[in-house]
Structures are given as C-alpha cells and as structure tokens.
C-alpha cells in the first residue's frame, strides 16, 4: 500500500523502537498528542511515557539531554517541532553534539537522531517556515540529511538511528501528506537506505539540477516543462545528504551535462548552493560550458506570511525554468 | 526547602537526625589527605605554567578543594562527573591516573583526548568523566541526559554535575534543573559559589543571597553548605547522592567557597580587594581540617609531610612521563570527527578528470 511521507517516518520510528529498546523519543507534544504533525502517532500508547517523552517546552534540554543519554549508551530520537525554534539548542548542537567525539579524542560519542520539521510554502510565516539547514551543514561532526522521497524518509531515518554519529534529519512539512509522492515502502532492514550518497532522480544530458527536500518536486516539474518546450534533457541530483556532501556524484553529473543549476529553498548567500558551486568551480572547471547558476530565496531574514510575499520569496517552477534557459542558451 | 548548613565540622561528623552514619577516622583522614594532594598537584601545575613548560591556560581550584573532595570522593566508577573548566582535580579524586592527567596538561598524544582540549579540560571515558566544553553550564545539561539514561536503564548510578555561581545566570542552567525536577533524575548539582565569575562579583549575577534557594523553583531540595568545611560538604553530598541513588531525585548543593587565584593563570585578579583574599585564605579548607583532625588526635605535622613526600615522587614521575610523551602527529587533527575516517576526503580534493 502506498503511504505518505509522514507515515513513513512513523513506521521507521516504530520499527526501530521494536528492534532496539535503547531507542526513545523526546520532544514537545510527541507523546500523548502524537506530534504536532502526527509523526509519533500511536507510539506513546504502544511504548509508554518512558520511551516517548513529552518534554518541557525547552529545545535546549531536549537536545542536550539526548546528547547525555546517547553518551550513556541510549539511542535518542529527539524532535524539534519547527526548525525556526531550534536556536535555543544551538550550543547543544554546534558546541556539544558536533564536537564531543572530537574533543574527547574519540572516547565519547553521542549518536542522536534529531528530527527537524522545516520549510515554507504553507503560509506559516516568519517563524514556522524557515529552512536553516545551512547552519548545520557548516558544522563538521554533524551529519545533516534531508530526504525528499517516501522511501528515503523511512530508510534514511532508520539508518540515521543506527549511525554512530549525531544526525540531523530535516523533514519538509509540505512533503508530509503530498499525495503525488506517496509510495510503497519495504519493511525492516530491507527499507534501510544509504545515508551518504546523492541520488540521480532523473537522467539527462544537457544540464544538471542539484537540489534537496521539497524543491525536488519543483525541479522535476521544471525539468518536464523545459524538456517539452526545448527538447532538451535535464538530469536531477537529489542531494539527500547536506553534510558531508557527496561531491563525486555531483561532479560526475556535471562532467556529463556540462551545465549546473543549484536549486535551494534557503536564501542565497552562503547557502548550500554556494558550496556546491565552489566545489564544481574548483574541481570541474574544464567541464563547464556555462556559468553555474543558483535559484534561491532572496536574502531577507525570513519567509513573510502574506500569500503574495511568500510566493515572491519561494523558489518555484517558473524561476527554475527561466534559470535553466539561461544556462542552456548561454 | 532550601536549608543552610553552617555547622561545625565536629557536629557534622556526628550521627545526625536523619540517620546518616558516623564518619570513620579513616574516611576523615582520606578526605584530608586527598585535599592535600589536590593542592600539591595544582600548585605544581601553576609552577609548570609559570615556567612555560606547557602551552595553554589553567584554571586552578586552589582554595576550593573541600567542595571537590567532599562531593566526589565516594563516587563509583559507574557514576558520572560533569565537570567545568575548574574541576580538573575531580579527575584525580575519581581515580584518573596522573600520567593521563599530566598528559592532558601537556597536550600529548597520551592524553585522554589525544591533545585536543585545553589543559584544564580533562575528561576520562573509562571513569565516566565528561570531557568539558568551555561554553559555561553546558555540562549540566549533558550530565542531566546521562542521569535520564540511568533512570531509563533502571540502574542506581548517579551524576554529579559541577558549575559555578556565574553559570546560574544562563538559561541552560535552569533548563537542566527544571528537567531534572520534572523527571526526578538521579543527579546532584554542585554549585561552587566562589563569589567571582572571572571579574564579576556574585552580586551582579543574582539578587538572592543563597543560590540553593533556586532549587525551590524546580521542586527539589537545595542546600547551602560551607564549602571550605570538607566534612560538612561530604555529609551533605552523601545524603544527596544516596537520595539520588534510591530514586529520590535531584539535589542542588551550593558550596560557598573562594578561589585563591585569578580566573586563570593569566589573570592577576586585580578586581578583588587584598583584604578579601586574605580573609578567605584564613578559611583555608586544609588548615581547617587540620585543626579538626588535631582535636581528634588524628593529625600531626609529620603526617602531613608524609602525605606530601609520598605524593611528590608520583607527581614527578607523571610530569616526566608527560614531558617525554610524544606530541600528536599533525595529521591526527583530521581524526575523530565522525565514526568514519575523513583523512582521504580532506587530503585528496583533486581536480575532477572526466572521462570525455
């Protein structure tokens, strides 16, 4: 049966909790209520209040208590209800989780899997829409993933929970119940997915779009439109993992298509597209037949709530097609 | 809920109303001798620093030995310590080998963290001592998470988390205590109120007289103790640790004490009045314990000299070990980032050679 992205998350959590009694969940509203979006629905009833902990309203302790519990041998899966609220946990993530293994010479580790709900396009406004993945992609010691498909949502979450490193798992709220991406998923270990490789979602030979998260849907629609209009073929690389980057897959694709467009929901300056552009410029300069372009949100502090403002802010199919035309017709 | 303990050591050592047992002569001598060794250790490290025999800074707890020893001495290997930058000697008290500790001072490859953290930021995984960060109060939150794991695993291990009075101004400090209260976690928070957070007096950190009163806001006991009275600290800490072990939840212990020297070895501490320093040096926890032990006929100057004479060769040997120990290889800067190796990735960012 085809299931939704959020059901895939719930399945992954349940399967991992059944498999390993060291796995537990902690966060705001994750228990009795089953999560603000329903990702932990039914788990409180099944596993009890000790393993599905309704935490105080304090992101700092949600993450740092998870770090301590992981040090002591457990496998915490904390949740940040909205990425916009992650700032009280910045010390925990950047100074503790990212650096604990390093600062202890490998003798102390904290394998947490922090689920973070992110992304705009829902009218959520300044503080329920942000895409702040870049803050964490900049931190060595953290693994940052952003699955875009239902199979990845399940398989990468399961793999993250088993990974011996702190993993931040960014889930876009617009993917949760999107009917068009519903799909069948496998059960148990068969559902596991690689955490570290990009995926080629569409084969092409004339240009590459590198993107992640909800923007994969935008990229696919843009590719279809431009293929229809211009008779070209577009390759789409789904990043999947933002830290550490899988540079090789990106470089191989650019070597094949000779043109690169990076599509990101985050704003432009020093975003993930900046790093990918630099990698390609440094290591594959001779492969390029056109300048690298980025389609990104403008450099404003956050996503405004009113519909015309939000639409102006969000990268979309139209902006992506326009940018593709520029590099194809260079 | 907050209670003050400012009793004479003699009373503290007697059986108390709550049933805690008499402290044995052997334990009293152990408390004393451990304080002396901690003092010798830190004064020697300060000399090594002045001689520029190691790089980096050091944060001495000289003057605060009673709080370190009284709270830590009877912990089990399985118990966790969450130290701050000023709790280097807690490592020694819990049993970390001197060779490892001096290697930390010298940032050698033989240090517990293989030369990564600053000299005073010593942790030791085999004895469950968390390697500290420098972001103040963060260790409390991580220690609270260890306590959560202990509770979930249904063992009777406890966590002792150290902080200073300055850290109580941070939100982290309160998030940790609040969560520990809600979850009734097996943790003891030791707040070493030494009056000065670097150059800022406690009067500019908090309006309250006793930091222990803050525990009331989190629904568990808070107690203020004379942090220079090792017997009083020991008795109060043992009560709190036993309560935590038996599922009775957290305790906040405020130890009123004083650091004799600056915030670090490069701080002359000119912000303090000399009279204040002298007043507190007169309350030296080691001298106080000598008076107490003398009253019980457990102390002689020869006994003290014997402790020092036995300890100094051990310390000499550890310094020698550390000074001769190899420095880390430069390439090791790339290690222990993830569970997997990144050397190849970092070293071979070569140009991409397409097959066209």
Tell me about this structure.
The complex is a heterodimer of chains A (330) and B (356). Chain A is of the alpha/beta class. Chain A has 2 domains: 5-191, Thiamin diphosphate (ThDP)-binding fold, Pyr/PP domains (Rossmann fold, 3-Layer(aba) Sandwich), CATH 3.40.50; 199-328, Rossmann fold. In chain A, 37% of the residues lie in helices and 18% in strands. In chain A, helix 1 runs parallel beside helix 7 (150-162), helix 3 packs parallel to helix 4 (90-97) and helix 9 (247-257) crosses helix 10. The radius of gyration of chain A is 20 Å and the shape is globular. Chain A starts with a helix and ends with a helix. The model of chain A has no long low-confidence stretch (mean pLDDT 97). Chain B is an alpha/beta fold. Chain B has a single domain (3-347), classed as Rossmann fold. Helices cover 41% and strands 10% of the residues of chain B. Chain B contains 12 helices and 8 strands. In chain B, the strands form 2 sheets. A 6-stranded parallel beta sheet of chain B has the order 1-7-8-4-3-2, with helices on both faces. Chain B has a two-stranded antiparallel ribbon with strand order 5-6. Chain B is globular and about 80 Å long. Residues 15-19 of chain B have low confidence and may be disordered. At the A-B interface, helix 3, helix 4, helix 5 and helix 9 of A face helix 6 and helix 7 of B.
Gist of the model:
The complex is a heterodimer of chains A (330) and B (356). By secondary structure, chain A is α/β, with parallel strands linked by helices.
Task: Give the topology.
The complex is a heterodimer of chains A (330) and B (356).
Chain A: H1 5-19, E1 23-27, H2 43-47, E2 52-54, H3 59-71, E3 75-80, H4 90-97, H5 100-103, E4 113-118, H6 133-137, E5 143-145, H7 150-162, E6 167-172, E7 199-202, E8 207-211, H8 215-230, E9 234-238, E10 241-243, H9 247-257, E11 260-267, H10 272-283, E12 293-297, H11 307-313, H12 317-328
Parallel strand pairs in A: 1-2, 1-3, 3-4, 4-6, 5-6, 8-9, 8-11, 11-12
Antiparallel strand pairs in A: 5-10, 7-9
Chain B: E1 3-5, H1 9-13, H2 25-50, H3 65-72, E2 80-82, H4 88-94, H5 98-106, H6 138-152, E3 159-164, H7 171-183, E4 187-193, E5 196-197, E6 200-201, E7 222-226, H8 230-245, E8 251-256, H9 274-281, H10 285-295, H11 301-324, H12 343-347
Parallel strand pairs in B: 1-7, 2-3, 3-4, 4-8, 7-8
Antiparallel strand pairs in B: 5-6
């Amino acid at each position: 049966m085809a299931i939704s992205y959020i059901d895939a998350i719930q399945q992954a959590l349940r399967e991992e909790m059944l498999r390993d009694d060291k796995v537990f969940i902690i966060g705001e509203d994750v228990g009795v209520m089953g999560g603000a979006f329903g990702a932990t629905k039914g788990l409180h009833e099944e596993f009890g209040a000790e393993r599905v902990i309704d935490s105080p309203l304090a992101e700092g302790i949600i993450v740092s208590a998870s770090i301590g519990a992981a040090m002591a041998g457990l496998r915490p899966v904390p949740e940040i209800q909205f990425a916009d609220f992650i700032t009280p946990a910045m010390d925990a993530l950047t100074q503790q989780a990212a650096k604990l293994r390093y600062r202890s010479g490998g003798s102390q580790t904290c394998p947490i899997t922090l689920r973070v709900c992110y992304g705009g396009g829902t009218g959520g406004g300044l503080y329920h829409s942000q895409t702040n993945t870049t803050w964490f992609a900049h931190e060595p010691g953290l693994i940052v993933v952003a699955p875009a498909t239902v199979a990845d949502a399940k398989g990468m979450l399961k793999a993250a929970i088993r990974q011996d490193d702190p993993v931040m798992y960014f889930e876009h709220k617009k993917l949760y119940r999107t009917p068009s991406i519903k799909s069948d998923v496998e059960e148990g270990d068969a559902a596991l997915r690689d955490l570290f490789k990009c995926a080629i979602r569409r084969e092409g030979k004339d240009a590459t779009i590198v993107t992640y998260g909800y923007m994969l849907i935008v990229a696919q629609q843009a590719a279809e439109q431009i293929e229809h209009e211009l008779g070209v073929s577009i390759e789409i690389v789904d990043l999947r993992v933002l830290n550490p980057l899988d540079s090789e897959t990106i470089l191989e694709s650019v070597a094949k298509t000779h043109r690169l467009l990076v599509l990101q929901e985050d704003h432009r300056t020093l975003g993930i597209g900046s790093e990918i552009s630099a990698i390609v410029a440094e290591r594959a300069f001779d492969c390029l037949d056109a300048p690298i372009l980025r389609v990104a949100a403008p450099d404003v502090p956050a996503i405004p709530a009113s519909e015309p403002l939000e639409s102006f802010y969000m990268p979309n199919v139209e902006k992506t097609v326009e940018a593709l035309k520029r590099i194809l017709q260079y | 809920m907050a209670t003050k303990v400012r009793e004479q050591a003699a009373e503290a050592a007697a059986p108390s109303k709550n049933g805690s047992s008499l402290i044995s002569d052997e334990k009293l001598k152990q408390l004393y001798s451990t304080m002396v060794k901690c003092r010798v250790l830190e004064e020697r490290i300060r000399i090594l620093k002045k001689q520029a025999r190691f790089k980096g800074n050091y944060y001495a707890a000289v003057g605060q030995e009673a709080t370190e020893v009284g709270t830590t001495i009877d912990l089990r290997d399985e118990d966790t310590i969450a130290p701050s930058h000023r709790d280097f000697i807690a490592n020694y008290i819990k049993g970390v080998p001197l060779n490892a500790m001096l290697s930390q001072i010298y940032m050698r490859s033989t240090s517990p963290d293989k030369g990564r953290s600053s000299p005073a930021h010593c942790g030791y995984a085999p004895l469950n001592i968390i390697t500290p960060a420098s972001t103040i109060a963060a260790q409390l939150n991580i220690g609270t998470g260890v306590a959560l794991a202990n509770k979930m695993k249904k063992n009777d291990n406890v966590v002792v988390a150290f902080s200073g009075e300055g850290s109580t101004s941070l939100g982290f400090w309160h998030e940790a205590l609040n969560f520990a209260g809600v979850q009734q976690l097996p943790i003891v928070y030791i707040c070493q109120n030494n009056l000065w957070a670097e150059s800022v007096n406690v009067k500019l950190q908090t309006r309250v007289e006793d930091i222990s009163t803050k525990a009331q806001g989190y629904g568990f006991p808070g107690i203020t103790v004379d942090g220079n009275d090792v017997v009083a600290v020991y008795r109060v800490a043992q009560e709190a640790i036993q309560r935590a072990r038996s599922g009775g939840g957290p305790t906040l212990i405020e130890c009123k004490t004083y650091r004799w020297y600056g915030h670090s070895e490069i701080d002359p501490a000119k912000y303090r009045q000399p009279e204040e320093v002298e007043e507190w040096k007169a309350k030296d926890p080691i001298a106080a314990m000598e008076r107490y032990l003398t009253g019980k006929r457990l102390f002689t100057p020869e006994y003290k000299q014997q402790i020092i004479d036995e300890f100094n060769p051990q310390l000499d040997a550890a310094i020698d070990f550390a000074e001769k120990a190899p420095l880390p290889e430069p390439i090791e800067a790339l290690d222990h980032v993830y569970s997997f190796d990144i050397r190849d990735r970092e070293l071979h960012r070569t140009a991409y050679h397409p097959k066209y």
